[in-house]
Specification:
Aspartate Aminotransferase, domain 1; 9 helices; 14 strands; 7-stranded mixed beta sheet; Aspartate Aminotransferase, domain 2; binds pyridoxal-5'-phosphate; 2 domains
Length: about 375
């Protein structure tokens, strides 16, 4: 068996100890005589798995007791519809901060349910930065302000946590799509009304969606919201109104335990800073490659970069793959390359990438 350095943006690499443990437990989980995929979601074995996963996530992110953690399905794209259906209540307008492809897609979807006010947009500068709070222009009475705090495709990450109190609008809940940087850095959950993300970037398998929602926002859904997507129904039933993605929850739980063994979010954040400094430091010092994002807003998780001579792109991809470094091709809307370096990517993987890039540049210069 041999494993590659996998820079996929998602579904993405998982910690190897997690995959090994899952393999060992595949046929017989803790003496149950069956694997996790085969268990009733209401049986005591699976209930204990789900409860531990939720408790570990709550501990890792220091989720306050007035927030509920929901395990849902449909991914972040489905949440783009589920959020307005749940949070609009009697209101007619929602505000969106557009910082790249994912927030753009979210505001388009929301237009099916409500009026959308673009509170701020970085489109004019090609989505290379995050508009500072002072530039956000909220509407008079929005149901919420939507943000995507790490734009996976553009490689733009908020360098601050949105705090509407600083612009005198602390009463409006902030919603954050955290799909691609959840658990990569400390976060003050109390600044948000709702955080959500698909699991397949930094947590576990595709198919599991995590929602963390302040409990006063439950029970505001519009009348035609599907019951299985009504946050209050999901919360009241402990995420088991419908059958939850049981295997995804199990793997997520193993990832949470792995994170705790690493020292928790603060420790993994320090590693993520070191990884990002290594890669961006190399890019900035090179006249062969470049990253085009405002240095203050560069993502620690998704690093898009370009070869200055784009004619060498195919050779770069072929030779990096031959060297055991895969999934480096940039998103089709951006071009160039992208290295996603989530929690499961060790510093050694980033070092291997930088070593390859240096070698490739030397051979082609
Ligand atoms: C990957 C991603 C999505 C899309 O997730 P799906 O699981 O395909 O719905 C949305 N937002 C962000 C920030 C992402 O990284």
């Amino acid at each position: 068996m041999s494993r590659v350095w996998n820079f996929s943006a998602g579904p993405a690499a998982l910690p190897e100890p997690v995959l090994r443990q899952a393999a060992e437990e595949m046929l017989d989980w803790h003496g149950a005589g069956m694997g996790v995929m085969e268990m009733s979601h209401r049986g005591k074995e699976f209930m204990s798995i789900a409860e531990a996963a939720e408790a570990d996530l709550r501990e890792l992110l220091a989720v306050p007791s007035n927030y509920r953690i929901l395990f849902m399905q449909g991914g972040a794209i489905a949440e783009n519809a589920i959020i307005p259906m749940n949070l609009l209540g009697e209101k007619r307008v929602a505000d969106y901060v557009v910082t790249g492809s994912w927030s753009q897609k979210a505001q388009k979807e929301a237009r099916r349910y409500c009026e959308v006010n673009i509170a701020a947009s970085a489109e004019a500068n090609g989505f290379r930065s995050v508009p500072p709070m002072a530039e956000w222009k909220l509407s008079a009475d929005p149901a919420y302000v939507f943000t995507c705090t790490n734009e996976t495709i553009g490689g733009v990450e908020y360098p601050f946590e949105p705090d509407l109190a600083t612009i005198g609008r602390g009463e409006v809940p902030v919603v954050a799509d955290v799909s691609s940087h959840i658990l990569s850095r400390k976060v003050d959950i109390s600044r948000y009304g709702l955080l959500f993300g698909g699991a397949q970037k930094n947590i576990g398998p595709a198919g599991l969606t995590i929602v963390i929602v302040r409990d006063d926002l439950l029970g505001r859904s519009v009348p035609d919201c599907p019951t299985a997507f009504d946050y209050k129904t999901v919360a009241d039933n402990g995420s088991m109104y419908n059958t939850p993605p049981t295997y995804g929850i199990y793997i997520a739980g193993l990832v949470f335990q792995w994170l705790k063994r690493q020292g928790g979010v603060a420790a993994i954040e320090a590693q993520n800073i070191a990884k990002a400094e290594l890669l961006y430091g190399y890019l900035d010092g090179s006249d062969f490659y470049e990253n085009r994002i405002d240095p203050a807003c560069r993502s620690r998780m998704n690093v898009p970069f370009f070869l200055k001579d784009e004619a060498l792109n195919d050779a770069f991809l072929a030779e990096s793959k031959a060297a055991g470094l895969v999934q480096l091709k940039g998103h089709k809307s951006v071009g160039g390359m992208r290295a996603s370096i989530y929690n499961a990517m060790p510093l050694a993987g980033v070092q291997a990438l930088v070593d390859f890039m240096r070698d490739f540049a030397a051979r082609r210069a």
